[in-house]
Amino acid sequence: MNWKEAGSGPGAVLFVHGFPFSGAIWDDQLAAVPEGWRFLAPDLPGFGGTPPVGGTLTMERLADELVVFLDERGIHRAVVCGLSMGGYATLALWRRNAARVRALVLADTRAAPDTPQARAGRYESAARARSNGVRVVAEAMLPHLLSPHTRATRPDVVARLVGIMESASVEGVAEALEGMAERPDSLPMLHTIDVPTLVLVGEADELTPPAEAEVLAQHIPNATLRVVPGAGHVTCMEAPKAFNAALSGFLAGLRAR
Ligand code: MLT
Question: Cβ contacts of residue 244 below 8 Å, gap of 6+?
Fold first, then answer.
């Protein structure tokens, strides 16, 4: 996988982006790495600079790709920080390979699977991406991704996010939509998460609203919930200062353990 990294030290944070983004959504985090940490942000298969793998991109497959990515860099355990689809993949990584996870950050994501209606919508969007290109899918999502505050005050963030979405491949988009449609319910396994967990959500997140974050925080034994004011679904880009402050406070707490 194509990736960017910054910082150095004994601690590693693996950032897992959402759909249909790339590792570039984490640029503001890689620009502010706390002392003693190495931040790594891959482009998932079919997104940014990473070619698609071919076939349905299930969350399990994504999780396994992430383990290979850690193996290739000699990283045994990492803090895994996933946003939205990246959160679904992070929960799959916990299910399959909990020993590789030092702590979790679950940003703007949910435990629940798709409703039958949402699942049907995914297959329709995948077909639309294959026949009309990724732009139609990105354009349909854009109004729901960023908060009204971000859209009104941060044209630079809107433009960056559009550029990131345009770097996705048709196969990546279609295969990830099919993979998300197939994901299982993670709720029954949340009680098994025995590592420190930070749950973050934008207060104006339309796609994975604060109520979904509350479910995660209620069912994960050692979880802390932070609601980020003014942000929508892409908190790491919309409110980088608040996101980074919450993340570095969480990481400092891990170092102190
Ligand atoms: C994402 O940001 O990864 C997607 O909105 C997740 C989803 O469609 O469920």
Answer: 28, 29, 32
